[in-house]
Write a structure and sequence with these properties.
The complex is a heterodimer.
Chain A: H1 2-27, H2 34-40, H3 53-66, E1 76-80, H4 93-106, H5 109-121, H6 129-137, H7 141-154, H8 159-174, E2 183-187, H9 193-202, H10 216-250, H11 255-270, H12 273-284, H13 308-346, H14 349-356, H15 361-384, H16 387-390, H17 393-398, H18 404-414, H19 417-445
Antiparallel strand pairs in A: 1-2
Helix pairs in contact in A: 1-19, 2-3, 4-5, 5-8, 6-7, 7-8, 10-13, 10-19, 11-13, 12-13, 13-15, 14-15, 15-19, 18-19
Chain B: H1 2-21, E1 31-36, H2 51-60, E2 65-68, E3 73-76, E4 84-87, E5 91-97, H3 112-123, E6 139-144, E7 151-157, H4 163-166, H5 175-178, H6 203-212, H7 216-219, E8 230-236, E9 240-245, E10 267-272, H8 276-284, E11 290-291, H9 296-303, H10 306-311, E12 312-315, E13 318-327, H11 337-345, H12 349-356, E14 361-363, H13 387-396, E15 400-402, E16 405-410, E17 413-416, E18 419-424, H14 428-443, E19 448-453, H15 455-463, E20 469-475, H16 484-487, H17 505-516, H18 520-537, E21 540-547, E22 550-553, E23 556-557, E24 574-575
Parallel strand pairs in B: 1-10, 18-19, 18-20
Antiparallel strand pairs in B: 2-3, 4-5, 5-7, 6-7, 8-9, 9-10, 11-22, 12-22, 13-20, 13-21, 14-21, 15-16, 16-17, 23-24
Classes of the chains: A mainly alpha, B alpha+beta.
GO cellular component, one term (chain A): plasma membrane
InterPro entries (chain A): MetI-like (IPR000515), MetI-like_sf (IPR035906)
Organism (chain A): Pontibacter arcticus
Chain lengths: ~450, ~575
């Protein structure tokens, strides 16, 4: 059995690696980044500017340099043939994009840089400004020439304009179009963001959060504990309740109860979780109706040293509504699955034999049906395990529980890449482990299962 | 067995009912509770990023100047008076003196050396200071007074009116606590003003950077100790941040007490509640004392809820947040002002205010808030909703209506009048307004494509000038009106702050003159004329100024309700007798 698990582990590693690598790269493709939002665009919509553009640009570049985000993303990159591999170093981004377009259009990097350098040398005055702005966007030969004509009108005797005209002419004449169709591979070596991150991961360092610079592990652990309290308890509760309900439904005397509860469960299943949470709040944490529980949080700050049990008792009233909402959300599906599984077992031959032996109904259920219904139940439970680390976004947000779900949402909103990648990694890992556990549980539940070697 | 399980269930329900009796945990006495929508994340006075964090840091650290929310004016906080300004050719000197009594948590006085240290921390390379660094880039040097340890002069490059505030708008850091090994002592502020690349391998600086960039500096109660009246007591991530009043704070022993340097409540607790509905319930439950940013519809409900109005006072101060529409004048179809004026006449501002703000907003003629009476141009009226006028303006701009819409031919190019309206997704006020505008424009024959997109994508499109029209919010203040970065043509290049491309020779001149204008009359005249031009040009179309919506427990007094963030001064709160 151990050999089997090791083999499974080895199989899982490549897919884990692939998931995390893809998320690492994809997350960086989100528009905007933490730094650009906070340094470049901060206070951009205010009456007076607190700082000028170049100072912000400089600070932004310093930040990238300090945090290693100036490096290329991966070991290699594939670009269009005319693009140089150092294009990513050009700031601001609008200039970089313009240069890239020029490179694609004319396919000749030295000519593009010559033209671009001349363009930058021109002094913007109130006369030349409109034409310059056109030139900074123009890519097509026609557009460049017409903007150049405007520029010449604005500054007819300027030598820099004449040089620009020469280089533009050279570019348009000697440019080779369509070379961008050819791909070019750039090798960046180990000096890249992915390598730095992966190397850190192997030494147990998953990086630091962009938002508060704390180690990613600490932040995730903190959120994980909060998630566990509510998700684990509600998962256990709903499994226990579902099991009891399924057993009740199987018994003839309770057929009326089943007819009563089943539609309620279906109804409950069709209520969206956020509506359920808000209903619970409005009914049970509202002075207009019943004010039984606090509306939010996981306890208040209290001075003085409280023992562990006192702390827990203080916390309990806060936990009841979130746990209740999740239990009610999980319950219909789990109950239904458990009941179906038991019903299948109920109609089998061995149950009939057991009954014929004269066993009591209760004994038949506990000893024969229950044991055999375990397999589908294990599948259902193992499907819920990843929720233990993925958290429950809606419940967490509404009840202000700082768990994994709300952490993930906040990290995505703030472009806190290290946290995003780490959460995906943990969830993928737990999903894999839950499958392994399910396999182990299958074997324990049913010794007939022989594992494939 | 089933019976046993039933017992367990029964027990569970009994305990549930039992627990419900002890559901409202006792609160700490004399604690003011404020709702925050998100965790402050970082309370370092140099590297914080969120507005919520700023509100908390303001209670722990002090800047040289502060805004007195009682009358929305700038007053000296750590400084004993407003700076003495001396303008020279290319530099301006701001001379400050720190308050005699001002001291740190350990009792040592706040001196000019601390100010110098702060500037070094904000300007040095390798440190986590990139957010604020650009703000002090104009401060070139600090000159300490040889005779007076509390006096110093800041040497600044050039002059703009807002410099007065900016020279006093950063938190002063305790050098004894932040740099116990005196690592930054050997550097001067000018060392960090010029080229920094030579310092990047400096060992002393690297040691300081490792120490200062550590997460402890963002959240440790032992390190985050400033000169203000509160200190961090507890911060449980994403749950609450609690501040405790200092026992013997210098601000309470001032020879001449200052009404805006206060620390009254013994404890202030910030409760983090992300969801609005939950926050409202917490308010009704009396779990929180202050709730701001209440959604307009909910605010009206609260007003009509007797149980709420008995416990809470509701306020709607005039905020300084302007909602405006921007048209891209660089687009040939919006190149002439008549077309832009026609679009402005299709914006039904009164409906926007009624529907999206539940009337908690005031229409405005321009970017100057109507509450700033000296500068607001009363001679103008807000642009009216007039579809007939819009049609007339379009026709005189050369557009001709066809069954497919409005068309015109300029320089042989056929133009079709369509509008792609972008705004930040998730902002329901923008969404509603956009739909109202879309309907009005459709009636006038202009197809409007409404696009709610991610905030950062809006910024990108606006900065790259690839938009037609947008809705955005502008945060203002009542003291400085240097609109140059917003409206001067020198800021209209890609990535510049003049996104609409507005600007005439006259407006440029007005903006330049405003910076150097000395008298209030002159400034008012210039700004009033600017508002008229802005309305005439209709590139930057001011829609309305919002009102904030706040609920505060009515047992408190001395609130200093203001339109400026955070809308009240919690440090001044007193319990009514």
């Amino acid at each position: 059995m151990l050999g089997f698990f090791i083999k499974r582990l080895l199989y899982a590693l490549p897919s884990l690696w692939l998931i995390v690598t893809l998320i690492f790269i994809l997350s960086r493709l989100l528009p905007g980044s933490f730094a650009s939002e906070n340094i470049l665009h901060s206070q951009s919509e205010s009456y007076y500017s607190k700082s000028d553009k170049s100072a912000k640009q400089q600070a932004y570049q310093n930040y990238l340099l300090r945090t290693g985000q100036h490096l290329p993303l991966f070991y290699f990159s594939v670009t269009a043939n005319p693009e140089p591999d150092t294009l990513y170093k050009v700031y601001p981004e609008s200039e970089r994009l313009h240069l890239q377009k020029l490179a694609w259009q004319y396919g000749n990097w030295p000519l593009v840089t010559a033209y671009y350098k001349n363009l930058q040398r021109i002094n913007p005055t109130s006369e030349t400004k409109p034409a310059l702005e056109m030139l900074r966007k123009a890519v097509d030969g026609k557009a460049i020439l017409s903007a150049l004509a405007d520029l010449k009108k604005a500054a007819p005797y300027s030598s820099t304009v004449q040089e620009l005209e020469k280089s533009a002419d050279n570019l348009i004449r000697n440019g080779t179009g369509y070379t961008y169709l050819l791909p070019k591979l750039h090798w960046h070596g180990t000096q890249n963001q992915y390598h730095t991150w992966l190397a850190g991961l192997f030494t147990g360092d998953a990086g630091n959060s962009f938002r508060d610079s704390r180690p990613v592990q600490d932040i995730i652990l903190e959120a994980l504990l909060n998630t566990w309290i509510i998700v684990l308890i509600s998962l256990l509760l709903s499994c226990l309740l579902a099991m009891e309900l399924a057993i009740l439904f199987l018994q003839r005397p309770f057929i009326k109860l089943k007819q009563l509860i089943m539609p309620v469960l279906f109804l409950l299943d069709s209520v969206p979780l956020f509506v359920l949470c808000l209903l619970l709040l409005v009914f049970f944490a509202n002075p207009d109706f019943l004010q039984l529980f606090p509306a939010y949080g996981m306890g208040f700050f209290q001075t003085g040293n409280l023992s562990w049990t006192e702390q827990f008792i203080n916390r309990l009233p806060f936990l009841i509504l979130p746990i209740l909402s999740l239990t009610l959300a999980y319950l219909p599906y789990i109950t239904n699955q458990f009941y179906r599984a038991m019903l299948d077992a109920d109609t089998s031959d061995y149950v009939r034999t057991a009954r014929a032996k004269g066993l009591s109904h209760k004994k038949v259920i506990r000893l024969h049906i229950f044991r055999n219904a375990w397999l589908p139940m294990i599948t259902v439970i193992s499907d819920f395990i990843p929720a233990l680390v993925a958290g429950a976004v809606i419940t967490e947000t509404i009840f202000a529980v700082p768990g994994m779900g709300s952490l993930l949402v906040a990290s995505v909103q703030a472009r806190d890449y290290p946290i995003i990648v780490a959460i995906v990694f943990v969830v993928a890992l737990v999903r894999f482990v839950s499958h392994l556990l399910a396999d182990a549980a299958y074997m324990l539940a049913d010794p007939r299962i022989r594992l494939q070697r | 067995m089933i019976l046993k399980m039933k017992k367990v269930n029964l027990l569970f329900y009994i305990s549930l009912i039992f627990l419900s009796f002890c559901s409202q945990p006792a609160r700490e006495p004399e604690e003011v509770r404020i709702r925050l929508a998100a965790d402050p994340e970082n309370l370092n006075p140099v590297s914080y990023t969120k507005a919520d964090a700023l509100q908390i840091i303001n209670l722990i650290f002090q800047a040289l100047l502060t805004v007195d929310l009682a009358d929305n004016t700038i007053k000296p906080a750590l400084a004993d008076a407003l700076p003495v300004i001396a303008r020279h050719d290319s530099v301006t000197h701001f001379t400050y003196r720190l308050r005699e009594e001002a001291s740190w948590a350990d009792g040592s006085p706040v001196t000019a050396k601390d100010v110098a240290f702060t500037l070094k921390v904000m300007k040095a390379p390798l440190l986590h200071n990139e957010q604020l660094k650009p703000q002090v880039a104009f401060i070139q040097d600090i000159v300490l007074d040889a005779a007076d340890a509390k006096k110093f002069t800041l040497v600044c490059q050039g002059f703009t009116p807002e410099m007065q505030l900016l020279t006093g708008d950063f938190f002063i850091l305790p050098a004894y606590l932040f740099d116990p090994k005196k690592l930054l002592d050997s550097y001067s502020v000018t060392d960090f003003t010029d080229d920094l690349s030579r310092l990047e391998n400096d060992t002393k600086l690297k040691t300081f950077a490792t120490w200062f960039n550590s997460p402890d500096f963002n959240r440790s109660a032992a390190l985050l100790k400033g000169s203000a009246g509160y200190e961090l007591e507890n911060w449980t991530t994403a749950q609450y941040v609690t501040l405790k009043r200092k026992t013997d704070w210098w601000g309470n022993n001032l020879r001449q007490p200052v009404s805006y340097v206060t620390a009254n409540p013994t404890r202030i607790s910030f409760q983090i509640i992300p969801d609005n509905t939950t926050a409202l319930l917490a308010l009704k439950n009396k779990q929180i004392d202050i709730l701001d940013n209440i959604p307009a519809a909910e605010f009206t409900n609260l007003k009509n809820n007797k149980a709420v109005t008995e416990t809470y006072a509701l306020y709607t101060p005039d905020a300084f947040d302007l909602v405006y529409a921007g048209l891209n004048t660089r687009q040939p179809k919006f190149g002439d002002k008549q077309t832009r004026q026609a679009i402005a006449h299709l914006l039904d501002i009164n409906s926007f205010i009624k529907i999206s703000q539940q009337s908690y907003a005031s229409p405005t003629v321009g970017p100057v808030p109507p509450s700033v009476k000296t500068y607001y141009n009363n001679g103008l009226t807000p642009v009216s909703f007039a579809p007939a006028k819009a049609t007339q303006l379009l026709t005189s701009a050369g557009w001709r209506i066809t069954p497919e819409g409005w068309f015109r031919t300029v320089n042989g190019e056929k133009q079709h009048l369509t509008i792609n309206l972008i705004f930040r997704a998730g902002n329901t006020a923008f969404e509603n307004s956009a739909l109202i505008f879309q309907q009005a424009a459709a009636k006038a024959g202009i197809p409007v494509n409404v696009q709610a997109i991610e905030g950062s994508v809006v910024s990108q499109q606006v900065q790259a000038h690839t938009f037609d029209m947008f809705f955005r919010t502008l945060t203002g203040n009542p003291f400085f009106f240097n609109f140059k970065p917003l409206f001067h043509t020198s800021y209209s290049e890609q990535g510049g702050s003049n996104a609409t491309g507005f600007g005439t020779t006259e407006s440029d001149r007005l903006l330049d003159e405003f910076i150097v204008a000395e008298s209030e009359e002159k400034k008012a005249a210039l700004l009033k004329r600017l508002q008229a031009i802005l309305q005439e040009e209709a590139a930057f179309i001011s829609l309305y100024y919002q009102k904030d919506r706040i609920a505060i427990r009515n047992k408190y007094e001395n609130l200093k309700i203001s339109g400026l963030s955070p809308n009240y001064d919690v440090s001044a709160f007193k319990i009514k007798n």
